[in-house]
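Researcher: I'd like a structural prediction for the single chain below. Treat it as a standalone chain; there are no partners to consider.
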Amino acid sequence: MDVKRELGSTYPAGVVYIGFFRDLRLFVNGYFNHEALRSDAMKQVVAAIIVLLALLGLADSSYLALVHYGVISPATMETSAACNLAAGSCANVIESAQSTFLGVPHALLGASYFAVVAGAAMIRLLIGRWYAPWEMLGFLVAGLAFSAYLTQELILRLHVPCAFCLTAHAINALIVALYAISLQ
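Model: Treating it as a single chain, here is the predicted structure.
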């Protein structure tokens, strides 16, 4: 395939967004061109791993949401081994003013995000292909961008390394990478 010829074509006005995803598909297909990654069995394994990671992210985000709403005491969070590694800073993040977006806790947004991802991956396992694959990629990339924003807020603005938050962001990055591989 002549990638330069494929990527060098011009797009009509208003179709730049479709061209971006077409170019991304060409990159993914060219970069991950290993037969083992392209087999149907491997695609099923990758989708199953995505389900497991999304469920882990759902559990992590749900725990943080329960702490945010006071169902679980922040003191309980402070005594966990993960927060002890970060000098007991997890509750500070959950109770900070930056822990919400338009009044909705980030943890609740994360729980719903991971629930959608888990559902989409389960559908992939059932029907053998991704339903609306490029729309899902857009959803995942938007989630990754928000995750990157929240990570920089944790580190640069709050100066607090919340282990639970960083775990959810790392899981999100892994899911996006695995999804990109599974699109082949």
